[in-house]
Amino acid sequence: MPHPQYEFANGTVNSCRRFHSIPSLQRAPCGPRTNVETYEGQRSANQPREVQKRTFGSAATHIQRNPAYSELNSDDVSYFRSILGDGVVEDEDRIAVANVDWMGKYKGASQLLLLPKSTIEVSKILSYCNTRRLAVVPQGGNTGLVGGSVPVYDEVIVSLAGMDKIISFDKVNGILTCEAGCVLENLSTFVENEGFIMPLDLGAKGSCHIGGNISTNAGGLRFIRYGSLHGNVLGLEVVLADGTILDMLTTLRKDNTGYDLKHLFIGSEGSLGVVTKISVLTPAKLPSTNVAFLSCNDYTSCQKLLLAARRNLGEILSAFEFMDHHCIDLAMRHLEGVQNPLPASQYKFYVLIETTGSDESYDKTKLESFLLRSMEDGLVADGVIAQDISQASNFWRIREGISEASVKVGAVYKYDLSIPVEKLYDIVEKMRCRLGDNAEVLGYGHLGDGNLHLNILSSKYDDNTLAQIEPFVYEWTSAQRGSISAEHGLGLMKAEKIHYSKSPEAVQLMASIKKLMDPNSILNPYKVLPQSVL
Amino acid sequence: MPHPQYEFANGTVNSCRRFHSIPSLQRAPCGPRTNVETYEGQRSANQPREVQKRTFGSAATHIQRNPAYSELNSDDVSYFRSILGDGVVEDEDRIAVANVDWMGKYKGASQLLLLPKSTIEVSKILSYCNTRRLAVVPQGGNTGLVGGSVPVYDEVIVSLAGMDKIISFDKVNGILTCEAGCVLENLSTFVENEGFIMPLDLGAKGSCHIGGNISTNAGGLRFIRYGSLHGNVLGLEVVLADGTILDMLTTLRKDNTGYDLKHLFIGSEGSLGVVTKISVLTPAKLPSTNVAFLSCNDYTSCQKLLLAARRNLGEILSAFEFMDHHCIDLAMRHLEGVQNPLPASQYKFYVLIETTGSDESYDKTKLESFLLRSMEDGLVADGVIAQDISQASNFWRIREGISEASVKVGAVYKYDLSIPVEKLYDIVEKMRCRLGDNAEVLGYGHLGDGNLHLNILSSKYDDNTLAQIEPFVYEWTSAQRGSISAEHGLGLMKAEKIHYSKSPEAVQLMASIKKLMDPNSILNPYKVLPQSVL
């Protein structure tokens, strides 16, 4: 799907502007294993899996259903029907879709899907479930990558898909207020027509909900320019576990009256409350966007290029994405209609740079001179600048399509790590050495934010491969003081792994807050926090 | 004091570039009083004030000392001396300074000032105070405006002034890690020498501590460009009420592992924990800064100018500050060595626009052509662009000196409001009508953020004047769905007024969190939250 924001003064399709090339491609030698390169013993294949079928996220197979939760009965369904009418879904096929994540990796066994149309309905649902001790999984676009948005057992699924209205847009200040079930791409289209852009953009934008974005504190492609949702979300309306409606839906840029509670719900993955409405600051849409697709001969050059881009492109830099050549090869094999703008597989690394500013010719000149200087300095081996929106879309399609292409291989083990930039690619090479020919290892991501996406592709999910990956990947990341989840959240996959990135004192305080706000633990159980602390 | 960040290619002192002028100055007629223009009866002058002498912040005179707190004894002092040595201050003069805020408006009666040198020492102090039920007021630079940083009664003052070390600076990513007692201006100077700037700047920068900035979620002059501390602070180390050290001192840009607890401490005014260390993202220092000082004939023009600046200056706009002519008159009367760049008192409104970018000549041309177009459109009456750092400093000195000049008149009632931009100046005119000749009313602030500073100057503090101002100012702001504290916090002054900006459900949840995290309520008592909910 084309990236919708590009506007170029020159609408004609020219060939991309090319720079000279210095091809070089060598595989890094595998170094010796370090102390942290240990791994857990293989999980028993005979262990009962109960409801889950393919839960290869860490430890998911070890979790037992919490017997404190009630089981759904016909009276419950009748009650829900009395408040929601046809918003109660018992159709098996529709429920089946909501029970599984888009990768087909996490699968629950819910028997009920609820589609509230208003905050009041969400409040009534939660109030009832809290009293009845019925566990609930809030669901947005179900595009998550860590099993956070699907049931683990028989939790009632509360989908926000029916709450997809734009409530207001302040054209003076660029402040959008909308319901949580709005699809990100629809919001993007809406605000762009008003001369603004959403402060976040991600590959799943065609399906993901803004409520889900907020609940997972989604990062994405514009983070380097516009920062995190903690900075851009102005207000939230949230329904708490007991049905209390918490109105924090301010549209003010500044408000220092008491504790800023909305931040508790940004990134807590629906475990503290269900986000129902949002107000968010949208930056002005600037008229000039340029996209370059470059290659580098080594990772050190990518790092130096990032530093140079920060210094020289300054206020117009809006994306700095990197991919290794394995990603490019995969995208070319599996994505329809995508072309490599540079000679295939000649380089080890590729970088996509986007600039966004208010002056077409000035910005383009600035980007071109930056790239020429980077080539003279030996940082860039080859490169092209998109000459029209079609070329720009093709560049972005490669970067954004990696996740989609990964799934087509069969099984994909996905990791989303924050690592100091200078060490960020080490884990990719280490993982390649560990896995050998058993898997294909891809490294790509938001280099400007120190965020690596590590995808490990295999023909099928199996415990042997998993044992080669985990806990090594977490131990190594922890040893670098990195984060085992930069932007995907913990979900079911990494709830028990939180200690790799957070101190015991911090986890204990999180658990205390969870118990305070959801004493019956009905909201998104088994996720985010380890069972042992709850 | 000069604004330190200005660099101009042309170092010579030229006269400012002038635009033609269209003078106009009329006082707005006072409209009829609206429904919300009620006010409380005058407070009794006979009411016992106990420790406070001039606590004209709302309701401060009504609060009784909480008898649950112990009174300090010699054993306590001996214990503190055993862990802090000469960090225990009993000298009356030094304690007197720490007992009163810089405006001389709030005054406590603490008998002990503690100056820890490390996080461990802070932890030992709090652990002891928590066990002994000794109330504590954490103190930074004591530059707050709402009585948040001084004792109300005999709380032990824990000053962070002794913890002022820079711990590390990551020159690649611009990440500063430091102790909480570092003075903001010192940090600014340090990072500017490394090619970066602090993401916040405010008038009190020469005294305020970064820990205090974070605890009050300070906004300031760069908010329009770099956003809030919730977006810029990467990590914190905090000591909880029971002495637990909470290490959240990550330097990662992205980390979605569990609840992002640091946001609880940003803006909670030391009532949930004492911030001891900080890591913060510092933006790259861009080489070109330009400052313009403009006049507008009416408030509508100021608003239109803001819109035009957002559209046309786009990514280089770094400040948009406005002042009414009363502010300018005051600054000229009370600030030494300050000159009005424009003919004195001819205009009703003044605007300071700053741009920061990476290209000196391009940025200057852009600003000049924007200003010429704005004059042609009738938005700007007169204007100058600073030709050197001295002129730029003079422009900023006017804006930043208003607060300092206000205090010189005698008494100043300060309000810090977020109000939708289109109605922002209404409250200034309404207040002028209410107060007549009894007081001088100034309106200025960060127009780009919808943040008005309303200063009401009088020869002395008195209950009659206060009753004319409050609760009207809060009721009116609440009716506009504004915030009664945009950036100053609630402190003692507005703790009991939180309901004007927050729902009962939100206040209740704040109280629950306070009770969870500080069950003995030893941290900064009587502030932030109403006593009735604790």
Write a structural description.
The first copy, chain A, is α+β, with helices and mostly antiparallel strands. Chain A has 3 domains: 74-159, Uridine Diphospho-n-acetylenolpyruvylglucosamine Reductase, domain 2; 166-281, Uridine Diphospho-n-acetylenolpyruvylglucosamine Reductase, domain 3 (2-Layer Sandwich), CATH 3.30.465.10; 288-480, Alpha-Beta Plaits (2-Layer Sandwich). Chain A contains 16 helices and 17 strands. The first copy, chain A, has helices at residues 74-84, 92-99, 119-132, 184-193, 210-215, 223-226, 229-232, 262-265, 299-312, 325-334, 360-376, 389-407, 426-435, 463-469, 472-479, 504-517; strands spanning 17-18, 88-89, 113-114, 136-139, 156-159, 166-170, 175-179, 233-239, 245-248, 274-281, 288-296, 317-324, 349-357, 382-385, 411-418, 440-446, 451-458. In chain A, the strands form 3 sheets. An 8-stranded antiparallel sheet of chain A has the order 1-14-11-13-12-16-17-15, sandwiched between helices. A 5-stranded antiparallel sheet of chain A has the order 6-7-10-8-9. The first copy, chain A, is globular, with a radius of gyration of 23 Å. Chain A starts with 16 loop residues before the first strand and ends in a 17-residue tail after the last helix. The interface between A and B is large, with 87 and 87 residues.
Characteristic terms for this protein:
homodimer; 534 residues; alpha+beta; Uridine Diphospho-n-acetylenolpyruvylglucosamine Reductase, domain 2; Uridine Diphospho-n-acetylenolpyruvylglucosamine Reductase, domain 3; Alpha-Beta Plaits; five-stranded antiparallel beta sheet; globular; FAD (chains A, B); flavoprotein (chains A, B); (R)-2-hydroxyglutarate dehydrogenase activity (chains A, B)
